[in-house]
Amino acid sequence: MISIHLPLLGPPQKDENGVEIEDKFSRMPLIFGYICRTWSSLLAFNQSIKDPVSEKLLPDPVQPPYYQPPYTLVLEMTDVLVHPDWKFRTGWRFKKRPALELFLQQLSPHYEVVVFTNESAMTGGPVLAQMDPQGQYIHYRLFREATRYKEGKHIKDLSCLNRDLSRVVLVDWDLTAAQLQPRNSLIIKRWDGEESDRELIDLAAFLRMIAMGSVDDVRLVLDYYREFDDPLAFFREKHEELMEIQAKRKHEAEKALSKRPRPTFSFTGMARS
User: Fold this and answer.
1) Burial of 179 (0-12, 13-18, 19+ CB in 10 A)
2) Collapsing DSSP states into helix, strand and coil, what is residue 140?
3) Ranges for the FCP1 homology domain (predicted)?
């Protein structure tokens, strides 16, 4: 394979005047220098395919008077927001997860929403354009080209987002996609297209809890919930218990208030002189 690229990649580079630029292979015997230079170029090219297209995937956060949401929410597209569905008549189509529009509407004021998917831009771009045609809810869209490729897996390197990781939440169904920053991840159930699914409703409530609580470091919250096999199911259970307690307290307070004796007022007429 090296011999094929040797004539193109083997010679040293030249400056604008056509003079060869000395490099670390220049002092080697000619053929060895060509071989080493070619091999180094091939390794660099191979690494460029594995690395993200940029070490800074998002622009700097906006400054006042513009509004920058306090948190960043990173979402996988496939089987988190939509599910690829094949039918004989229509071919492949992406089916929206139940409550998707409500989910995006509720979170966009609190989170900078970034869809970071393993799909290519050619596949994912049109789907996201239909999901949010006006660009109201999804702030940024990142595709497979922005992932880091390692051992046959596409990994989402959150350190390249140009954001404070203490305020970044990654939602995915694939644990390996978050292996570089596991403390920032919330792994949820992979959606298979089931119509009765309510995962996004629970997820929205969970993420609103973080935002409304003004959590300084989301990783501390995620660390706690990650201990459970199904973090959202556990959150829903505790949330329902809390709602029941609050409803019971409200009922008892109203009942106690109704038993209090009501004050009576008497009015005396004033005699005319």
Assistant:
1) middle
2) strand
3) 66-210
Q: Would you state the pLDDT for residue 241?
A: 81
Burial of residue 140, with CB atoms counted within 10 A of its CB: 0-12 exposed, 13-18 middle, 19 or more buried: middle
Q: Report the candidate in 100, 97, 74 with the shortest Cα–Cα distance to residue 85.
A: 97
Per-residue pLDDT, averaged over 66-71, amounts to 95
**Domain spans of the chain, in order of start:** 2-50, 71-236
Give the pLDDT score at 48. Answer: 44
For residues 86 and 124, is the Cβ–Cβ distance under 8 A?
no
Say whether pLDDT at 50 is over 60: no
3-state secondary structure (DSSP) of residue 4: helix
The fold of the 71-236 domain, in CATH, is Rossmann fold (3.40.50)
What is residue 82's three-state secondary structure? strand
Q: Give mean pLDDT, residues 256-269.
A: 65
Mean pLDDT of 201-214: 96
